[in-house]
Amino acid sequence: MSNHDSGHEATTDVALRDTTGPDRFEDPGHPEHHPRLGDNDPKANKKAERQVVFLFTISILGTLAFIVAYFAFPPGTSPETMRRSNITLGLSMAFALLGIGTAAVHWAKALMNDHEKSEERHAQRSTDETREAAVEVLKEGAADSAIGRRGVLKVSMIGALALFPLSIVLPLIGNIGEDWDVSKFKRTMWRKGLKLTTDPDGRPIKASDVTIGSVFHVIPEGLHEKPHPLDEKAKSVVLLVRLAPEDLKEAPDREGWSYNGIVAYSKICTHVGCPVALYEQQTHHLLCPCHQSTFDVADGAKVVFGPAKRPLPQLPITVDDEGYLVAQSDFHEPIGPSFWERLK
Predict the structure, then answer these.
(1) Which residue has the higher pLDDT, 6 or 279?
(2) 222: left (phi over 0), alpha (psi -120 to 50) or beta
(3) Helices 42-72 and 166-173 sit at what angle, rounded to 10 degrees?
(4) What's the CA gap between 101 and 223, in Å, rounded?
(5) How deeply is 146 buried, as exposed, middle or buried, from its count of CB atoms within 10 A (0-12, 13-18, 19+)?
(6) Same structural domain for residues 145 and 196?
(7) Does 158 reside within a domain?
(8) Which residues of 288-320 are buried (b: 16+ CB within 10 A; e: fewer)?
(9) 201 occurs within a structural domain
């Protein structure tokens, strides 16, 4: 017999064996159940209960620490106070959440029934009898957790779950430094005749000082004299760029918003509000370092790449009698990312 014939017969035998296999495998059933230490030892069971209570207590203390930190360490306006507030609030909330989560997991693994169960698959809509049976199963689960007989456990759980929402609600209802007037995002410091000045020293900028390809980080004149200069700066910062006039594409409704190729756009990214500040002179592209949204400065700061959905708002500018760059008006649209009352 040739090697070819032998290989053909072997292939046929394999095919025959494959077709004679069983259609279904026998259900092996559940693996052998191994009781936990707490199932047979009341002391171990009580110890597990105390551990769950301890974890819920950690959550309660974490929530109380959050409340104290919220009032004791307000964010303020300096980087140091903001960092201190974020760290204390973040750590306390972490303990509040971690306590509840680990307590729930440990309760289920150490105290509740751990016998494996299986059910036959059934139609999606259960019968009334099945639904009544489901209610009984829920009651059985409540009885299995022994929540009715474990008073301390129940009190600690209820205390942790009842107090934790305060860490979410408190910042919403507190009036310390809170301002929910979203209309303020629709306007900034800029107004007609206000000079463009360099950030951070506040030096007025002459049009003659801006050469083609140069970039200026700009703030409004008099920003540092405002009661809350950082709040105003967060809305009013501008990036000033000069292009060759022939490279600039101006929409009909924006004619006259630039001056001899000098354009000014908001530095606040329209995606999530990061500062847009990386300018590429050859392509006229402006990049946001956070999520790589890219805007075309030569064409109305339109989005050419990335998650941002809208162009950067443009600040209309001109020059005054002394040759200094000044604003023609405020932005004609809200700056920054979307919010719930925004029309554009």
Answers:
(1) 279
(2) left
(3) 10
(4) 47
(5) middle
(6) no
(7) yes
(8) beeeebbbbbbebbbbeebebebbbbbbbbbbe
(9) yes
Find the helix or strand (DSSP H, E) in which 52 lies.
Answer: helix 42-72
If one counts every other C-beta atom within 10 angstroms of the C-beta of residue 128, the result is 7
Residues 270 and 155 in one domain: no
Last residue within a domain, chosen from 173, 208, 240: 173
Alpha-carbon dihedral angle through residues 174, 178, 183, 187, given to the nearest 10 degrees: 180
Q: Starting at the earlier edge strand, list the strands of the sheet with 278-280.
A: 278-280, 285-287, 294-296, 302-305
Question: Is it the case that residue 232 has pLDDT exceeding 90?
Answer: no
Q: Which of 4-8, 31-35, 91-95, 224-228 has the lowest mean pLDDT?
A: 4-8
Same domain, residue pair 233 and 298: yes
- Integer Cα distance of 43 and 10 in angstroms: 65
User: What is the residue range of 219's domain?
Assistant: 183-327
Closest CA relative to residue 45, chosen from 139, 187, 149: 149
Instruction: Give residue 158's identity as a one-letter amino acid code.
Output: I
Side-chain-side CA neighbours of residue 30 (13 Å) = 9
**Predicted TM-score (pTM) of this structure:** 0.53
- Does the structure show a pLDDT above 90 at 8? no
Query: Residue 227 has what pLDDT?
Result: 82
In whole angstroms, give the CA distance from residue 18 to residue 326: 84
Tokens at 258, concatenated? 């630039």
Q: For residue 75, name the pLDDT band (cuts at 50, 70, 90).
A: confident
The DSSP code for 259 is B
Whole-angstrom distance, CA of residue 50 vs CA of residue 62: 18
Q: Which two tokens stand for residue 38?
A: 């707490």
Position 23 scores a pLDDT of 72
* Rounded Cα–Cα distance for residues 215 and 262 (Å): 10
